[in-house]
Design goal:
single chain; alpha+beta; 19 helices; 20 strands; about 15% strand; disordered N terminus
Length: about 625
């Protein structure tokens, strides 16, 4: 690093009890296009959030009309993250107001919430809805009410509430796929789950007759509603969140105990995670030892999409808490279950998405986002090679679940992936994202950029998110009657954070089911003492490696000096080794300057927490 790029002087700044030198930018010049676009996007989304709020909410934060409970909680789901990245405080405050409004509505109007937590729900939908709650602490970890909530919500799974005995500490299982503040539910409507292929009664029922599905309810309660499923692993994000806020070791112990139990089940099942575990802790207890067929499991309609989101959350949570690389094996082992059974068909690498009576079936392309999370954790060449194998053996579309967005989707059980002849371009950034769970579609372009093979990605991803914001604003302003369907409101959210998080922190897409932000770095405004990039400052993570990260910082203001603090990891779990040692670095950017920092790093070596640099002890 040259003297022109980096000048260091003592500033006497106190960070975490140590006097730090300030790194001063010295490269003058016009800002690059991506930096101007990034600041324009942040400013525009601040205004867009205001407009969305005025259209869709009543005073007090209640939605004018609501949908399903998880979708209502998702409405402002990424607004806390937006503030943590550099967006305005008002968006964050409104996300809390909206969360409170949704909680009140579902408590008093719908009767589905007890003690501010859903009474009973499957973990797929619970973990979707509570991502925003977890991200509140990224924006502000010092709100007493949210600290109490974090302890209470985690306590529902540590059996601290007599009404919510969700966990069996002897067999290390969740007692039902449906859990919540009133404990496990051993009776749920089986009609939807069975007709739409989200669970199977095989081998006791070979074929479900939709006309007689109500007759199968007792069997559904017996086989599906009792015991544990992999999707419950998504709760580890919520329990890890409680640890990050409190530092209480009981939450760490619980997460590691629960993940260890699932890893042992994988070992005992020939390396494959079983998707149903009975109340006695036995795999396949209610189906003669058969390890597949459970709720959202290997035989279900969206098997991999749902199961692997939970596996990602559990792997990241356990590794974050422990620093033990054995936990990377949870996700990696199941990736290899798929890749070891892959086929090349017409130039496309296809993996089995389901298991049935005839073995592995339903071959489709593997989504790169799964491998993105794996490589981001491990930083190992073997995981990059796994990713490259998938990327290089993709000749044609569509995406594995393209039919899910079709206006005329096939009937359950009749979905077959067929190449449509459209060429695969992993460098392309999709600009038609309509729901947060589709953000994973833009993982590959980011990965190629980090690998040096997609140099225009920063501008492309910002342009895509700006375009999507403008499109949603146009819809909000339209004269048509808004269709108040379950997900309509969330699909018109004009705040997009996936590209911003990728650019500024180096993180992969935040896992849709209970995920935590697995960032290499994050930022604070040193002068205003708030999270996120200071006004006028843009950031770009250019490269990630096992022992370093390359970050470009730009001050687009020609008049004002800006100072920021860089943290090693979203939760301080990493450590800087150069140009200074420690958890935080302070950078000063005089007007119209930029700096390229090569940050030496040790990964997953510190105790993680939400502590901010001015409050850390």
């Amino acid at each position: 690093m040259t003297r022109a790029l980096l000048m260091m002087f003592l500033a006497g700044r106190l960070l975490s009890g140590q006097t730090q030198s300030v790194i001063r930018a010295g490269e003058h010049g016009a800002p690059p296009a991506w930096a101007v676009l990034q600041r324009q996007l942040i400013g525009s989304m601040n205004s867009a959030a205001d407009e969305f709020w005025r259209v869709f909410t009543l005073p007090g934060g209640v939605l004018k009309k609501g949908g399903k409970i998880d979708d209502d909680y998702e409405t402002f789901g990424n607004w806390p993250l937006f503030h943590a990245l550099g967006g305005g405080r008002q968006a964050f405050d409104r996300s809390i107001e909206g969360w409170n409004g949704t909680t009140r509505r579902w408590t008093y109007e719908r009767g589905a919430v007890r003690m501010e937590f859903v009474k009973h729900y499957d973990m797929l939908h619970l973990s979707e809805g509570y991502v925003s709650f977890q991200n509140f602490a990224l924006a502000d970890p010092d709100i007493p009410e949210n600290l109490l909530r974090a302890r209470r919500f985690a306590g529902f799974y540590l059996n601290e509430d007599p009404a919510a005995r969700n966990y069996d500490p002897v067999h290390h299982i969740m007692r039902s796929p449906w859990t919540g503040s009133e404990g496990p539910s051993f009776h749920e409507d089986g009609s939807y789950m069975l007709i739409y292929g989200h669970a199977s009664l095989y081998p006791r029922v070979k074929q479900v007759d939709a006309a007689r599905v109500a007759d199968l309810q007792p069997l559904f309660d017996e086989m599906i509603c009792r015991g544990d499923v992999p999707n419950n692993l998504a709760v580890t994000g919520l329990i890890t969140h409680a640890y990050l806020l409190t530092g209480d070791e009981k939450y760490k112990r619980w997460v590691l105990e629960y993940v260890d139990a699932w890893m042992e089940r994988i070992r005992a099942n020939n390396g494959i995670i079983p998707d149903n575990v009975g109340l006695s802790g036995k795999t396949g207890e209610y189906r003669g030892g058969q390890w597949w067929g459970g709720q959202f499991g290997w035989n279900s309609r969206y098997s991999i999409e749902i199961m692997f989101n939970a596996l990602i959350t559990a792997t990241e949570s356990a590794y974050l808490l422990s620093g033990d690389r054995k936990y990377i094996g949870l996700l990696r082992s199941q990736v290899d279950v798929l890749l070891n059974r892959a086929r090349i068909v017409d130039g496309n690498l296809l993996v089995p998405y389901r298991v049935g009576p005839n073995g592995w079936e339903d071959f489709r392309p593997l989504e790169p986002y799964i491998l993105s999370h794996l490589w981001n954790l491990s930083m190992e060449a073997e995981d990059w090679d796994r990713l490259q194998r998938v990327l290089k053996n993709a000749r044609s579309g569509p995406r594995p679940y393209a039919y899910a967005q079709s206006p005329d989707p096939p009937k359950p059980g009749q979905e077959v992936w067929r190449p449509d002849g459209s060429p695969v371009d992993w460098r392309k950034v999709e600009d038609n994202i309509t729901h947060r769970n589709q953000n994973r579609h833009n993982e590959a372009p980011h990965l190629l950029y980090l690998g040096g093979d997609n140099p225009d990605w920063p501008v492309k991803v910002l342009a895509a998110e700006y375009s999507q914001m403008a499109r949603n604003l146009e819809r909000i302003r339209g004269t048509f009657e808004h269709e108040w369907k379950s997900q309509t409101v969330t699909e018109q959210n004009p705040v997009f954070t996936n590209g911003l998080a990728q650019m500024t922190t180096g993180a992969p897409d935040l896992s849709f089911n209970g995920g935590l932000l697995m960032a290499r770095v994050r930022y604070y405004d040193a002068d205003r003492k708030r999270p996120g990039l200071p006004e006028d400052v843009a950031a770009l993570v250019e490269k990630l490696a096992p022992d370093r990260a390359v970050v470009r910082l730009v001050n687009i203001s020609a008049a004002h000096t800006r100072r920021l603090i860089i943290e090693a990891g979203a939760y301080g779990q990493h450590e800087f080794t150069s140009p200074q040692k420690g958890q935080w670095l302070t950078v000063e950017l005089p007007p119209a300057t930029s700096i390229r920092l090569e940050l030496g790093m040790r990964l997953f070596v510190n105790r993680p927490s939400y502590a901010q640099p001015w409050t850390a002890k």
